[in-house]
Amino acid sequence: MTFENILIEKRGRIAIVTVNRPDKLNALNIPTRREILSAFEQLKTDDEVRVVIITGAGPKSFIAGADINEFAGMTAIKQRDVMKSGRAFDSVEDFPKPVIAMINGFALGGGCELAMSCDIRVASSNAKLGQPEIKLGIIPGGGGTQRLTRLVGEGKAMELILTGDMISADEAKQLGLVNHVFAPEELEAKTLELANKIAELSPIALAMAKASVKNAARMNLREGLDSEIDLFALCFSSEDKEEGVRAFIEKRKAEFKGK
pLDDT value at position 59? Predict the structure, then answer.
């Protein structure tokens, strides 16, 4: 697929997916959502890529939300079909490799929802996050009511969604919505540092770990514990497990091959 709204760059074991609509503050229109889906499908089978970073072009915005122009005249049935058929955020959450959101400005509406579908969120100190849909007479429709509640708790999620207020990167960190906050000039280097630290580890173990943590929000405790044991045991069928154990015993750095 030829991409018109996103860019994909590889830096060693890291792939950087950039939403490239800076003149629209990287707003997510329907074609862009489809391109994100396609990009992650391609990266899923690229064995050279172990971690993906997603960000927005330009210094002002990660993703400022949906392209509101598409909402004008949209019927309920058509909008539902659009959301059901273009579940880009779900594809990011279900992606088997770690995904880091590098939030370089506004992350509002669908932008905040996309960031929340990532595994780790790293923000610039000038970033602003929020779910302002209520101000348009609608509600979040890309996972905002569900993922925000799981990340920050019902009380704060309710306040943010009912008011539509934006919060700073520092407040988002205090709430647990983002993991780290860095100065704008440090954001890319620090995010790549984190991504490369993860990329050195076993791709098999990373996939098992991500799946197990995600199950914590999808299963009850007993189901989650049983699933964790199964995923833990699966790691013992890999060559990476043998390499990791040998490297520990031999007091050297492991060289994981993803096998």
Answer: 87
Pick from 123, 126, 90, 91: nearest CA to 194: 123
Residues 173 and 229 in one domain: no
Examine the residue annotation and report whether 133 is marked as an active-site residue of this protein: yes
Q: Tell me, what's the pLDDT at 86?
A: 62
Crossing angle, helix 144-152 and helix 154-163, to 10 degrees? 140
The tally of domains found in the chain comes to 2
Q: Are residues 140 and 231 in the same domain?
A: no
Asked, for residue 255, whether it belongs to a domain, the answer is no
In a domain, 96, yes or no: yes
**Cβ neighbours of residue 210 closer than 8 Å, sequence gap 6 or more:** 96, 97, 98, 119
Give me the average pLDDT of each 10-residue run along the chain (259 residues): 91 97 92 93 95 95 84 81 79 96 96 97 98 95 95 97 98 98 98 98 97 94 96 95 95 93
Q: Are residues 145 and 239 in the same domain?
A: no
Residue 1 located in a structural domain: no
- Domain containing residue 82: CATH number: 3.90.226.10
Q: Could you say which of 70, 133, 154, 243 is catalytic? A: 133
Q: Write down the pLDDT at residue 41.
A: 94
pTM: 0.94
Q: Which two tokens stand for residue 115?
A: 């960031």
Q: Pick the catalytic residue: 4, 48, 70, 113?
A: 113
Tell me the C-alpha to C-alpha distance, in Å, between residue 130 and each of 19, 114, 171, 173.
19, 12, 11, 13
Contact 211, 237 (CB under 8 A): no
In whole angstroms, how far apart are CA 59 and each of 26, 102, 136, 162?
11, 12, 26, 28
Asked if 124 and 64 sit in the same domain, the reply is yes
